[in-house]
Amino acid sequence: MSNTQQPIDIENDEVLIGPGQILRDARNQQGLTEQQVAEHLNLRPMLVAQIEKNEFDSTTPEIFVRGYLKNFARFVGANESEVLASYASLTIARHKGTQMQSFSRVTRQKAENNRLMMIIYFIIFVLVALTVMWWMQDANNKTSEQGVAEQSVVDDVNQTNTAVTSDDSESAVDSAADSTVDTTIETNETIEAETVSEEKATNDTANAITQTVISSNAPALIPQEQSLAEITTLPTNIDGTEHENITPLETFVFNFVGDCWVNIFDANGDRLAWGIKRADYKMTLTGKAPFTITLGKPELVSIEYNKETVDLSQYLPGQIAKFVWPKA
Questions:
Q1: Per-residue pLDDT for 327 more than 60?
Q2: Is the peptide bond before 326 cis (omega within 30 degrees of 0)?
Q3: Is 264 helix (H, G, I), strand (E, B) or coil?
Q4: Rounded to the nearest 10 degrees, what angle do helices 62-76 and 80-191 cross at?
Q5: Which residues, other chains included, contact 220 with Cβ-Cβ below 8 Å and sequence gap of 6+?
Q6: pLDDT at position 122, please?
Q7: Residue 127 pLDDT > 50, yes or no?
């Protein structure tokens, strides 16, 4: 009985006298010692002391324990039935105590599991909330970028409308000027016939020169402020290789590594390119500098201007680039 069970607590309203106490009282009445009982029963003195303390080894078969108690009771003159009944009551009480401990352990484990589940639910709630916040912020950023792109398109359309309106105004001025010249010619016809004849001849010469320029696809137009005398000298310049006032055209080469929205105007206000250009597309533009360029995703575009690379590193990824090139 080296491995002993600890005494268990008994409820307050129950009084339980163990077999060890009955045997100890009987031994003391007989004036016997633990050593004498051990020698008579062929047991170790420590085992006799454990029996008197109600400490029984759970690994020892119950039939041996009951045999020890009977022999102990006979030797000290105790009532065997009372000792065995007390042992049975002690066994039942210990069994109830074990069940209560098991129930308490299960209850404590359930409480710990409930706390753990609450922590897990809280962590899941936090993750879901963070995901929803990230999604809403990403949606707001995309809406802002779309608004900036739409505003840029509106600005470009307004600029185009302004240029068209300016061209219409210039056409109206030209018509008014032509009307004024015709009125002046008619007035001069009534004043001086010879002057009218010379002006008609001169006008016929100018018209012929204009038709020649148009049929030969001349790159320059005759200025309105140019006098009739200057018009008559125009063929001498047209017969040359190129008019001295013609501005040479500049060349842009765009290489796209991804889908990118573009809008490009030259110095005359003519739109050279507009819309979404796909990946692996190479676009070459020719026009009059400077150019007004708008790029939806500058990180996806590389530009060469007159065979020189244009630096776009100042624009961050996702930022709309709008600039004039070459810079003043």
A1: yes
A2: yes
A3: strand
A4: 140
A5: 243, 245, 246
A6: 93
A7: yes
What Cα–Cα distance (Å) separates residue 135 from each residue in 124, 142, 212?
Answer: 17, 11, 67
Q: In the β-sheet with 301-305, what is the strand arrangement from edge to edge?
A: 282-287, 250-256, 301-305, 308-310
Beta carbons of 267 and 291 less than 8 angstroms apart:
yes
Burial label for 38, CB within 10 Å (0-12, 13-18, 19+), is middle
Are 75 and 37 within 8 A, CB to CB? yes
Both structure tokens of 259: 């889908």
Tokens of 181: 């010249």
Residue, of 298 and 252, whose pLDDT is higher: 298
Q: Output the pLDDT for position 43.
A: 86
> 267: closest CA among 242, 244, 294, 247?
247
CB 220 within 8 A of CB 245: yes
Contacts of 250 (CB under 8 A, 6+ apart): 286, 287, 288, 289, 291, 305, 306
Residue at 95: amino acid letter: H
163 closest CA partner among 89, 268, 307, 244: 268
Segments making up each domain of the chain, as ranges: 153-217, 247-325
Q: Please report which confidence band the pLDDT of residue 292 belongs to, taking 50, 70 and 90 as the band edges.
A: very high
Q: What is the mean pLDDT of residues 176-186?
A: 51
Choose between 128 and 227: higher pLDDT.
Answer: 128
pLDDT of 199 over the 50 cut: yes
Residue 58, classified by CB atoms within 10 Å of its CB into exposed (0-12), middle (13-18) or buried (19+), is: exposed
Q: Which two tokens stand for residue 317?
A: 């990824």
Extract long-range pairs of 210-217: CB within 8 Å, 24+ residues apart. 212/238, 213/238
Write out pLDDT tens, residues 80-102: 888 888 888 888 777 766 655 66
